[in-house]
Structures are given as structure tokens and as C-alpha cells.
Sequence to fold (262 residues):
Amino acid sequence: MYICFLKKTYFLRYFIELSYLGKNYHGWQIQPDVVSVQEIVNNTLSKLLNKSILTVSAGRTDAGVHAKQMFVHIDSPKELLLKDTVYKLNAILPNDIVIHKIFKVKEDAHTRFDATSRSYEYKIYLGRNPFLLDTTWQIFQQKLDVLKMNKAAKILLNYTNYQCFSKSKTDVKTYHCSIKNAVWKQNGEILTFYITADRFLRNMVRAIVGTLVDIGKEKKSIDDFIRIIESKDRCRAGTSAPAQGLSLTAVDYPNTIKYAGK
Fold:
């Protein structure tokens, strides 16, 4: 009689905080025949740690979208020297991807499922500025009624189903999200839309921004906005705003995910 003992594989789980400019990448997620941020980060980690490393992210951004704060988690078979690893990663990575911090978490902590909220900013430049082409949607010779745009944005908080702002043919179990904040703020020529929710659907923020800009241009009314949300029909909402104006700015987690060992 033979008894087989399976050896348990131990690992240490780490969260990595990073940011990136999305201009040169076809989004966060690895895809065939195009360069993604995840591919670059995975390859750099694998090279440094001398082991195949697969990152799991808090979410994914579309082609051309930026992230001021993104989190991924990895499993390492050995203890990492945190500051040294950050330094070495940044020495290898291209200049448009930066690692800010690495910290140890509980072995079941998950960057996607444990996130309690996510925040995005969308920036519009009211005019023309060649130095902001990669990070703003430039609208000129057209006036926007920001007061109406804010009135419509506030209405978003009265609903939970945002199917009308979701990319078509996307594989999701629910179109329900809890939006906690949605507001436009203007500082000179920069008009910024701030939005925070527990989760976001694919293309959701850009579809909301495009629809709100239609209201600002008086192409749609506040009543139209309500009817669009209640219709759950993507075809009735506005065209998605250009990718370059959008940035993921914050992902929040409970303190309980952090490693509690010595």
C-alpha cells in the first residue's frame, strides 16, 4: 500500500501599485499581436524574478486610457526586498510605466475582488493646446453648458443599472453599479469629470462623458438623459468620448487585506 503525500506549494502574495500613460499601448490586458501594459509588466517581473510571473489587476483600461493608480497582485515563491525590487523594476520598465510601491498582503487578497471603489477622471480642454493632446479631449469653438452637465451627472446617482452606457456584446453577469460621486469641475480651460463607483462596466465612463457633453452642447436634454438610462439601450446614449482624456485615478481597499504576520 502506497500513501502519496502532496507537497503544498507556498507563496507570498504582493500588491504592486503602478501608473502608466496609455498612449503607446493597446489597453491594459494582454491581447494577441498588440502591445499591452500587462504584457510589459509581466515580462519585466519575470525577467527580474527569474520566474514566469502573471499579474492580476484591479481592472482593465482600454487602448489609450491612462492610469494614475493601478494595482496588480503577484505570487512570489520567495521574499522580496521591496524597495530594491521597486528600484530594479523602474530601471527596466519603459518611462511611461512606473512602479510606486510593493507591499505584502494576505495570501487570499485579490486586487479585483477586494477593491471597494474605483475612481476615474475625464479631462476636457476648452480650446487648443498641442502639449495636452495625449491627455485631454480638446473642444474648441463650441460652448458647453456645464451647469446642465452637472445637473445630469447628479441624476446618475439615482440609478443602479447602467446598461445603456456599457459596451455592447460584453460578457457580464450584471449591469448594476453603485455610483458614489459624479461631478464636473472647471479650472480655467480644464474641465474635469470626477466619478467614483464600486465597479464600472466596459466603456462606461467614456459613454457617460460623451452623453453629458451632448447635453452641454444642447444636443440632448435632461429629460432625454433620464430616458436614455431607463431605456437600457446603448444605441440611445451618446458617442463614447475619446480615450486619451480618461484616467483611472484611485482604487481603494480595506486595511484587512494587508499581511498580519511578523
The longest strand covers residues 66-76. The chain has two domains: 12-113, 117-249. The first helix runs from residue 37 to 49.
